Amino acid sequence: MMTSTIIITLCILLLIAYVFDLTSSKTRIPSVILLLLLGWIVRQLSTVLHIRIPDLSGLLPLFGTVGLILIVLEGSLELELNRSKIGVIKKASIAALLPMLALAVLLAYAFQYFQEGLSFRDALTNAVPLCVISSSIAIPSVKYLSSYNREFITYESSLSDIFGVVLFNFVALNELGEMHSAWTSVLQLLLMIAVSFAATVLLAFLLGRIDHHIKFVPIILLVLLIYAIAKLYHLPSLIFILILGLFLGNLDELKRFNWVNKLRPDELNTEVHKFKDLITEATFLVRTVFFLLFGYLIETSEVLNTDTLLWAIGILSAALLIRALQFRLSGLKLFPMLFIIPRGLINVLLFLSIVPVQQIPFVNKSLVLQLVLLSTMVMMLGLMFSKKEEEPTTTVSGN
After folding, report:
1. Is 5 helix (H, G, I), strand (E, B) or coil?
2. What is the residue range of 288's domain?
3. What is the mean predicted confidence (pLDDT) over 210-235?
């Protein structure tokens, strides 16, 4: 009886989530807002009906990590890689890195000001998780924008995740200002790029040559395994996911290299299309479960915590101002791109990665939750009041 009830509940929740995903392009309400609300409602109902549910908080990092991998992989599989994309990649890289660094340093000094004796390293460790743009929310929310803007957001948010993880690991694990730490981080980055290319070629070879009726599950398991091993050694493992997606999604562009032709790209393309469909389905499922679970674990008192609300509003305001300035200097169109700076899955994961000895009182679950909700609502309003872009653009003009 209990098993049937659980299955019925999960099926209903996932089908409701599917309806949210179907209607988000019409309502322009990001599905994540509705998923969080749905999860919170389930929590309230379980309390009212006295339904005992075990502690699920330990599942959040697991679904978050797998969801992050799948979201970045899904986004990178859709990106075109050719000479005409160099401009958007450069601008997206700058937009992902410079505002994050500026906001992180600003917050670190603010944290030091309000807490005496706090080291800059610990302040920066707590600041970085609040400064990263979440690809898990940004990428699915811009489906109806022009092709250029979709590409820009996909590159920007994916690179923001990567830069954020690299910066967090560098700050949290190393003493700032030491040259050997900087060189170690550079070497780790180069090592990860080399490993990523080797692993990508191997996975592409396996994808094209495995003729067993079960072939995509082992590939996905190998992707997760390589990511987890790299993560274990504090390497920027999201780079591997990005490179894998770009490689598989751009086989036609890479045919000019002789060694790529040995992978039989025409035949491999057929398998890649099937693989992309599977990744899209898996991404929806894992992302939905993560945000439902996150919503379920929300305490109402955390959302209404006035001690952190001013911090959340201040951080988001500073992020918008820095982004607007950077867009102006880069000649990028402000609307609606200015407002697409959601915090979400990656921010929660980085926050949970802060070791207790480095945590500071006012960077807590309430602050992260409020920042996720506020930034997503700002993005929602920005998208709702912007005109729908019917035609893809090749350039972005200043506004």
Report:
1. helix
2. 21-384
3. 92
Distances (CA, A) of 42 to 16, 46, 241: 13, 6, 34
Note the pTM of the prediction, 2 decimals. Answer: 0.87
List, as one string, the DSSP characters of 20-55.
HHHHHHHH---HHHHHHHHHHHHHHHHHHTT-----
CATH of the domain at 293: 1.20.1530.20
What confidence tens digit (pLDDT) does each residue in 364-373 have?
999 999 999 9
Asked whether residue 343 is assigned to any structural domain, the reply reads yes
Question: Judging by beta carbons within 10 Å of its beta carbon (0-12, 13-18, 19+), is residue 360 exposed, middle or buried?
Answer: middle
Q: Would 139 be classed as within a structural domain? A: yes
User: Where does residue 385 rank: exposed (0-12), middle (13-18), buried (19+ CB within 10 A)?
Assistant: exposed
- The band of 218, judged by pLDDT with boundaries at 50, 70 and 90, is very high
Cβ atoms < 10 Å from Cβ of 399: 13
Q: Is the Cα dihedral 237, 242, 272, 197 positive or negative?
A: negative
Q: How far apart are CA 337 and CA 145, in angstroms?
A: 10
